[in-house]
Amino acid sequence: MTGFDYAARMDRARRELAEREVDVLLVSIGSDLPYLTGYTAMPLERLTMAVIPRDGETVLVVPELEAPRVEAMPDVFRIQPWGETEDPIAIVAALVGPAQVAMIGDHTWSSFLLALQAALSDTVFASARPLTESLRLIKEPAEVDLLRRAGASADTVAGLLAAETFAGRTELEMSRTVGALLESNGTDVAGFAIVASGPNGASPHHEPGDRVIGEGDAIVIDFGGKVGGYCSDTTRMFHVGEPSPRYHEVHEVVLAAQRAGIAAVRPGATAASIDAAARAVIQAAGYGRYFIHRTGHGIGLDGHEDPYIVAGNERPLEPGMAFSIEPGIYLPGEFGVRIEDIVVCTDEGSERMNRSPRHVVIVH
Ligand code: ZN
Ligand code: ZN
Ligand code: ZN
Prior knowledge:
The protein has helices spanning 6-19, 32-37, 88-96, 110-119, 129-137, 141-161, 171-183, 245-263, 271-284, and strands at 24-27, 49-53, 59-63, 78-82, 101-104, 124-127, 189-197, 218-227, 230-231, 234-240, 296-298, 305-309, 322-325, 328-331, 335-338, 341-345, 350-352, 361-363. It is an alpha+beta fold. The chain has two domains: 6-136, Creatine Amidinohydrolase, Chain A, domain 1 (3-Layer(aba) Sandwich), CATH 3.40.350; 141-363, Creatinase/methionine aminopeptidase superfamily (Creatine Amidinohydrolase), CATH 3.90.230.10. The strands form five sheets. It has a six-stranded mixed sheet, sandwiched between helices. The chain is elongated and about 70 Å long. It starts with 5 loop residues before the first helix and ends with a strand. The structure holds zinc ion (3 copies). The site of one zinc ion has 4 residues, from loops.
């Protein structure tokens, strides 16, 4: 990941540490590490850890064999490789020194945390999640640009799917097709492709299986991948042959709910109010009890991150926050309908990262 101002991000992390009166931030695997250092660590049994003191130099402790993959940024951090017979816990403990309070990244193997706690018995450990979440919550323009590119690639695939033959193929085959289309149309790495046909559509996170898609099936396709480390996530509806009036009715309700959710996005509106705006449409149509999940989730380096668009989340939206709006209606034994776009809150309202048509696509 190049093109980002990692020194500025590190400064923000240090300011957050000072505000919270925390001496040191410890970040292991997961998305916080590339956010702060540009380096994505493999989730290995060998410890990788960035030691970020409130005052002083950041040190990236990495297994020696991984060090060649780290892009040096001397103005941001120093690399400290450790050899196979060294003890990385002792190295990190020495760097942490007499810190009273340490924050530790959410994605740290518990065995490493337990060993660090034993080695640093005078240090109080707290979860770094509130800190790293606030760092990553507001996307920079360059991050929004990658979300836009990821969304555009997914939109291209949604368009190409209209020309695919569905009938006679299994969900799993279609899922693999979606993944291949993503990677041949601008997505670096395909992430996931839920293909849920007929009654399977009533399960929001259905695992695509060997069900053969047939005439009259409604199909939910929810898919995404990464561009430059940033995720896409969109859901579109397909139907083999002409849908029933009942299907059309449900689809119209979900689309109206999704539009209402997006229309409610503006700075100062709470995450909960976006959920309420979408949910009200579905409730008014009498399908409230079939909308069985929150309206959306934040997105960025992770496919699901803050802010969560859910009742009870009174966090006011701010320009630069990125999240999904994905209401659905799930009718057990019949079909499901979900429509999902990623949006970014802007000064005026919102910008959709997905622009592919949201009507049901009739396929063969
Ligand atoms: Zn989901
Ligand atoms: Zn999705
Ligand atoms: Zn989603």
